[in-house]
Design a protein that fits this description.
mainly alpha; elongated; 3 helices; 70 residues
Length: 70
Amino acid sequence: MLTIRLEKELEEQIDLLAKVKRSNRSTVVREAVIRYLEDNEDLELAKQALTETKGSRSLKELRRDLDLDR
């Protein structure tokens, strides 16, 4: 279980979203946290892929390297 303190305005926005989605506060906040963590993971994976890239090649070089120009 987790307890957090939120500003009144943010709490009201969560309540409104929960009402529109016919849900409750806990579900709305849980879904938001899950999305945040997934987005953060995607960002970290993208950063990792970028650092592992050993430079770039032009399309012409790539086609040649893959022997696509016959």
